[in-house]
Structure formats: structure tokens, C-alpha cells
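Justification of computing resources. Each target in the renewal requires a structure prediction run like the one illustrated here; the chain below, 297 residues long, is used simply to show the kind of job we budget for.
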Amino acid sequence: MAIIHTPVLKKEVLQYLDPKQNENFVDCTIGEGGHTKLILEKNIPDGKVLGIDLDPAQIENDRWQMADYKERLILENSSYVNLKQIVERLNFGPIDGILLDLGMSSVQLEGSTKGFSFQLDQSLDMRYDDRLNDLTAEKIVNEWPEEKIEKIIEEYGEEKFARKIAKKIVEERKKGRIKGTFQLVKIIKEVIPGRLQNDRIHCATRTFQALRIAVNDELENVEKVLPDAISVLSSGGRLAVISFHSLEDRIVKNFLNQKSKEGLIKILTKKPITAEANEIRDNPRSRSAKLRVAIKI
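Resulting C-alpha cells:
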């Protein structure tokens, strides 16, 4: 059965980016291209979208799925951290809007073999692109010191049982290398109280999130790309950022507030925009999505 990815906050993204005829946009994390398709329908006849994704499989999929838009869609297999260099190399512009969707797609979560999801028994890899990165989740849980594992689970996962989980990981790896997702889930379940194991959020979610963030330097990458996004935007251009956990959202919020004080942007969303009840019902992953938007002055 094919895995279908549903982009979050579609209506809200379109409302705030407000694509018009012949305008150009950058989708920094194009994924399956859900948001990009909506933009390409609006910026006809000559507006372009530059779609960036670190996952080469996503880029190839988009090349095939969106062949109808090939004259107006430029695809780049790279990290959004390289946004400024990519824009300059391709001489892409003027840029009227930038979308940065920091969530993982359903295909990456469920169609990958890299251990992003605890629902499937896979190796603990968690790299978006293994050509650029030697660090894996397996390496972290088996080789990092207990204190460092605790720190990332607590800070990146905001997991209150971080100390117990880290301690148990270190205990278990003495018996043999921890290699698979189910192995790790079993370890986590052994220290999370039973009454919390059937919570709305799976008890392994925060630990897996923390490992993924650590493996891919996700928070540092967000901090790096935001100034470049403002830099390459045209005056009047809009930056829309969708984050999925409080650490990302805090980085985005603080950055936008600072740039607003400097007079570089005007914030269009006093509070982050969240999904409506019907979207959460149809697409549970949208529950944690927060959209912040600013316009460059």
C-alpha cells in the first residue's frame, strides 16, 4: 500500500505566502512537493519554485511526480543550510517567498529503512543523507557516554525520563550492541512507567526525536538558515516557517523577534498558526505544527 504524505497547514501557508502570477518561491524542504504544487498552481504562467531536499530519493520522486511542472520547477539535492550558495549559483530570483517546513514527511517516517520510525524494526541509522554524515543513532547509543546521551534526550527530546533511559541504554549495551529500533523501544519501555506507555504520544517518541535531531544537527541548521533566508528574500518577500517541536519554534520565534527589533522584517503572525480541528483529525501529525510568518521590509 502506497504511503501518502499530506502537507500540513496547506490553506494557511497559501494564505500567508500569497503566491501571485509570475512570482518565484523557494521550498527549502520540498519532500513530496505538496506545498510546492499548490504554489505552482498559483504563480502561473512563468513563476518558478526552487525545491531543495537533502534526501536524494525525495528529489527523484519529485522529478517524476511533478514532470508537468518541469519548466518551472528547479530541484536541488542539498541541505537547506546551503540555501544562499544554491540561490547564488543558480542565479535564482527575485525571491518573493520562502517556505521552511521542518517536519519529516510520512514517506521518510514510514517508507524509510533508516530507523526514523519506532513502528518498524530497522537499523538505528536516522541520517537524512549518509553521503554527508558518518554519525548514526546506533553510534550514539552504543558509543557516547551516558551523560551525553542523557543531555540530548533531555534537551532535544524534552524527555523527563532522560536520565533513566540513558542509564538503561548504557546497561543494555554492555550485554551486546544495540542495533535496531525495536531493541531501543524495548529498553525505553523498561524505564517508562506503565501508566504512561499508552499515552497519546508513544513513550519512545521523544527519545527517537532527540536522536534524529542529534544525528542531523537539526537545531544548528535552523539557526544557520534563517539569516540566509532573510538575506536572499526580495523586499516585500515572505518567510514562512513550520516547526514541529518547541525547541525549533523557540529558535524561529527569537530570530524573528530580533530581526523585527532591527527593523528588517515585520512579523505577520503575532502567535504561531496551528492546525484546525478537522485537519488534526484527518492528519494527526499536524497536531504539533506551528507556522510563523514574516515579511521583509
